[in-house]
């Protein structure tokens, strides 16, 4: 047991976060996402059973700094045909992400198929039990000053 660490952080999640470096990306995805069939840089899938995407983001962003040296420190998956209009799942999660962004950093959206392609370049995938569709995000690791 460690002091000061959110008990919802699994050993696998801690290991992935500690191995990431500046600019590495982490795909945080819902229960519908094909996490085990789309290969990432490490091939790792971290399961977060019992947590929705908002709680999963809170857990991760409690430890992980977001990148402020790029246009978007985080991206969210657009619903097909909706463009950058956020769904309720995005509306619930975006305040958590925005609160973790460094000054001057932004959050953006990405079309669903482009999300799948970008996620293949992610360091790893964290899959939660979110059941609202399109509840998927890419977080870009920043630096700790």
Number of helices: 4
CATH architecture: 3-Layer(aba) Sandwich
Measure the end-to-end span.
27 Å
- Output the radius of gyration: 14 Å
Helix content: 25-40%
The CATH topology: RbsD-like fold
Which sequence of SSEs, written as H and E, runs from N to C? HEEHEHEHEE
What's the overall geometry?
Answer: globular
InterPro entries: RbsD-like_sf, RbsD/FucU_mutarotase, RbsD_FucU
Catalytic activity: alpha-L-fucose = beta-L-fucose; beta-D-ribopyranose = beta-D-ribofuranose
Protein name: Fucose-binding protein
Keywords: Isomerase
Description:
The protein has 145 residues and is an alpha/beta fold. It has one domain: RbsD-like domain (RbsD-like fold, 3-Layer(aba) Sandwich). It is built from four helices and six strands. The chain has helices at 11-19, 53-61, 88-100, 112-119, and strands at residues 25-29, 45-48, 72-77, 106-110, 124-128, 137-140. It has a six-stranded mixed sheet. β3, α3 and β4 form a beta-alpha-beta unit. α2 (53-61) runs parallel beside α3. The chain is globular.
Give the tags.
alpha/beta, RbsD-like fold, 145 residues
Blueprint (SSEs and pairs):
Layout: H1 11-19, E1 25-29, E2 45-48, H2 53-61, E3 72-77, H3 88-100, E4 106-110, H4 112-119, E5 124-128, E6 137-140
Helix pairs in contact: 2-3
């Amino acid at each position: 047991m460690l002091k000061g660490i959110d008990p919802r952080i699994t050993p696998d999640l801690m290991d992935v976060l500690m191995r990431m470096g500046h600019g590495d990306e982490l795909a945080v995805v819902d229960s519908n996402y094909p996490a085990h069939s789309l290969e990432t840089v490490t091939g790792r899938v971290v399961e977060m059973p019992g947590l929705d995407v908002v709680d999963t983001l809170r857990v991760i962003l409690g430890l992980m700094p977001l990148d402020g040296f790029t246009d978007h420190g985080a991206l969210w998956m657009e619903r097909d045909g909706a463009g950058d209009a956020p769904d309720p799942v995005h509306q619930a999660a975006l305040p958590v992400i925005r609160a973790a962004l460094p000054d001057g950093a932004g959050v953006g959206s990405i079309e669903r198929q482009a999300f799948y392609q970008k996620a293949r370049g992610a360091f790893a995938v964290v899959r939660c039990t979110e059941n609202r569709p399109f509840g998927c995000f890419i977080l870009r690791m920043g630096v700790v000053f």
